[in-house]
Amino acid sequence: MLEIIVVRHGQSVADIENRLEGKADFPLTELGIEQAEKLACWLKYKYEFDEIYSSPLKRASKVAEIIGKKYEKEIIYDERLNEMDNGVLAGLLREEADRLYPLPEGGRKYYQCIQDGESLIELRARAEHFFAELIYSRDFEKENKRILIVSHGGLINMLYRTFLNLPLDTGVCLNTGDTGVHVWRVSGKTRVVAASNMQYHLK
């Protein structure tokens, strides 16, 4: 069986400045670092990991670094775990983005993208590629493994759809708070969501 623990980064500077992040590379706030440290302690108490993967963007990689030190493990950085590329919106204040690049009537279709960004189809392809390589490149039926993934809300939501084979245009969304933790299990063709958006470590 393969157990996948998926976590989101903590509070970032963009969060408190009300900016759109996406590909913009904002660091964690002091609170975000504190959240990551609490998460690392909680994970160390609960789990052992064979491998740790992370988005290379600062807000996720810092969380992975803090966790990695607890486990004395190297981090495997993978750009496929980056947040959705939001092109010209990256780093803009939300009100500024609404004014300069208003959504078309009815919103953007899943095959459309903002200027210099990627579409939901392209984001799904990234998630599918990463997940397929993770699942099918090794035989987890012969050896139990537990893997940690540190990423971003949008990408985690797409990984969730990938994990459950949900259609791209599904209305099902997975919310993830600061350093929220999800637990997914794969055994043969069976896929189980064992826990979702746990934040006990922040209490």
TrEMBL record:
Please name the GO terms of the biological process aspect recorded for this protein, alphabetically.
Answer: negative regulation of glycolytic process; regulation of pentose-phosphate shunt
Q: Which branch of life, at top level?
A: Bacteria
Q: Name one GO molecular function term.
A: fructose-2,6-bisphosphate 2-phosphatase activity
Question: Which residues does the record give as substrate binding sites?
Answer: R59
Q: Which SUPFAM superfamilies match?
A: Phosphoglycerate mutase-like
Q: Which GO terms describe its cellular component?
A: cytosol
Q: Check the record and name the Pfam families matching this protein.
A: His_Phos_1
Q: Which UniProt keywords apply?
A: Hydrolase
Active site: residue positions: H9 (tele-phosphohistidine intermediate), E83 (proton donor/acceptor)
Transmembrane spans: none
UniProt cross-references to InterPro entries, sorted A to Z: His_Pase_superF_clade-1 (IPR013078), His_PPase_superfam (IPR029033), Phosphoglycerate_Mutase (IPR051695)
Q: Which SMART domains match?
A: PGAM
**Protein's name according to its UniProt entry:** Histidine phosphatase family protein
**Lineage, uppermost ranks:** Bacteria, Bacillati, Bacillota, Clostridia, Eubacteriales
